[in-house]
Design goal:
Blueprint: E1 7-12, E2 18-19, H1 20-37, E3 40-46, H2 49-52, E4 62-66, H3 69-88, H4 99-105, E5 109-112, E6 116-117, H5 124-140, E7 144-151, H6 157-166, E8 172-176, H7 178-185, E9 192-195, H8 210-216, E10 224-227, H9 230-237, H10 243-258, E11 262-264, E12 268-269, H11 281-289, E13 297-299, H12 306-315, E14 318-321, H13 324-332, E15 337-341, H14 344-350, E16 359-361, H15 368-380, H16 382-410
Parallel strand pairs: 1-3, 1-5, 3-4, 5-7, 6-7, 7-8, 8-9, 10-11, 10-14, 11-13, 14-15, 15-16
Antiparallel strand pairs: 2-12
Length: 413
């Protein structure tokens, strides 16, 4: 490879719109991979091509390719199966013209940035989707790397079978945390590298939009950031509880106990869409509407970038979140972070910082004083926790950078 050779990289499993955790990983790969691999051209295969096109980073050339779930299942996967047969027969693949398969075939490596995949409890459709997304480039014969993500456990029948079919064939798997590594070890894989999340390498935005910065002044200095989650809402309400009332009660008790302002903000956002797994805007608006009379509770109803969200988190004194990559922004900005989550993926990252006790299951919302106690402790010992996070960050960022080395090693000659 010459120093000036431009490598082509396809990114799957993420988008710039909706889930800003995925956006953080896209932005990080685009910004940081050229430092390891040299000049790159990127194809972003995304579920939201129209929304993503105006958001592409300007640091590297990025071509947006639409790859909606139905298209993946009904068009790209069948074509990839035929291409796999053609490869066995040593036939040329010039006939492959579907946009997703062609983008991957033209690439030197495919980077799968799904934040969590092949995990029990997420439902058969999502496991099948994970298999199709990773399976297409494998069928096409393109080196494929599953960059930092949580995986496993693999006990449910469908997940166990599909993971055993797909994961051994991936060029490299980047395990994001000790628990994920333990799960992968049950499959006897030899293609696993321990890393930290890609988003630990994300750059923070310099400024917030002027209208958002103005709103935050109402919350005053030292405010607490609360980031609810539509995903956690679905989990919490599956038992018949009311998530909006539970989060509102948590905000009330934080206000009463600490006297601090509260900023409610979505970490996943889709403009003009209703609530869904990738859109926390509606649930944030519902919670915020219950505090119309309290000027120190501010609801940010805006489509911020991943870097801007990191800036917002860093302005707070404590972060309370149910979104994984919001947690990472808290850690990257040395902000004491209290997590109300739903998966092992949170605690295995908090463990790197000695803060595993700050990771709780979503059902803790039924006893909000437990969360408020953690918030109060974080405020009281803020300097201590910030120093603890600061001490751990260099090692974690070094492991985050391993992702790019693994990707570079996977590039086909």
């Amino acid at each position: 490879m010459t120093a000036l050779q431009c490598r082509r990289v396809s990114i799957v499993g993420g988008a710039l719109s909706a889930n800003k955790g995925a956006a953080a990983m896209v932005e990080t790969v685009v910004a940081q991979l050229p430092s390891t691999l040299g000049p790159c051209e990127f194809s972003l295969l995304t579920t939201y091509p129209d929304a993503d096109s105006p958001k592409v980073p300007t640091t590297s050339p990025v071509h947006v390719v639409g790859l909606q779930p139905l298209r993946l299942a009904l068009v790209e996967f069948p074509v990839a199966l035929l291409a796999s047969l053609a490869r066995l027969l040593r036939l040329p693949l010039g006939w492959v013209r579907t946009r997703g398969c062609r983008a991957m075939l033209n690439s030197d490596v495919v980077v799968d940035i799904a934040g969590i995949s092949f995990a029990d409890g997420r439902g058969i459709p999502i496991v099948v989707y994970n298999s199709l997304m990773t399976g297409v480039p494998l069928l096409l014969g393109v080196p494929t790397v599953k960059a930092a993500q949580a995986m496993g456990p693999f006990r449910s029948p469908v997940n166990k079978v599909l993971s055993k079919i797909v994961l051994p064939r991936v060029t490299a798997i980047c395990a994001r945390g000790a628990r994920t590594r333990d799960h992968l070890d049950t499959l006897g894989l030899t293609n696993v590298t321990d890393v930290a999340d890609l988003a630990f390498s994300l750059d923070e935005a310099g400024d917030l939009p002027a209208n958002v910065a103005t709103m935050l002044k109402n919350a005053r200095d030292g405010f607490i950031v609360v980031m609810p989650s539509a995903v956690v809402r679905g989990i919490y309400e599956s038992t018949g509880d009311n998530y909006v009332e539970a989060v509102a009660e948590l905000v009330r008790r934080i206000r009463h106990t600490t006297g601090r302002g509260v900023v409610i903000a979505p970490h996943s956002y889709r403009v003009g869409h209703g609530e869904g797994r990738m859109n926390d805007g509606p649930v944030c608006r519902e919670v915020g509407a219950l505090f119309a009379a309290d000027s120190m509770v501010v609801t940010v109803d805006a489509d911020l970038s991943a870097g801007e969200l990191r800036k917002l988190v860093g302005m707070g004194s404590v972060l309370v979140t149910s979104r994984f990559h919001a947690m990472i922004s808290g850690l990257c900005t040395e902000t004491p972070t209290v997590v109300v989550g739903w998966s092992h993926k949170y605690r295995e990252v908090l463990d790197d910082f000695g803060l595993v006790d700050f990771g709780m299951d979503s059902q803790v919302l039924s006893t909000p004083d437990l969360v408020v106690t953690k918030v109060a402790d974080a405020l009281t010992r803020s300097a201590e926790y910030s120093a603890q996070i600061r001490a751990a960050l260099p090692s974690v960022r070094s492991r985050s950078a391993k992702n790019f080395a693994v990707i570079a090693q996977a590039v086909r000659p």
